[in-house]
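Case study 2.
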Amino acid sequence: MAATSLEIRPVDWQKANESQAVVEVLDSYASHMVGGGVPLSATVRANLSAELAKRPQSIVLLAWSEGQAVGLVIAFEGFSTFACRPLINIHDLAVLPKFQCRGVGKALMAAVEAEAVRRGCCKLTLEVLENNSHARKLYEAVGFASYQLDPATGRALFLEKKLG
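Prediction:
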């Protein structure tokens, strides 16, 4: 795939094919081991696009090659209290398997970074599984590093508490 054949643009939620493309690309990622190995549920498949469209803080970009959606990034604007500026958290980055290692992930990361700069954000954040070496290599290549305030206090950890 030549770099010129790749187009990255925000999802137009009014276009059914674009809404469906978000679901299909994300389902491909979710079904893979690094995405959890479980396809999206019927409820998520039916409601994801409508729910994302309702959230003005969401950023959903699709990568297109020759009319096919081949990758996506889903991110959300948050706020850094320490910097008193917005930030963007990259929640999902997915590239269809046959388009991986062709620059799609880097192009999506560049596009979300450009959006962060446009919004005056102080940083981009994301989480990645420790053993996802492919993704970690990409993130390091585009400038991400583990977070710490001071080396003496150690690295930050990502924690969760599931509700309901």
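Residues 24 and 45 are 8 Å apart (CA to CA).
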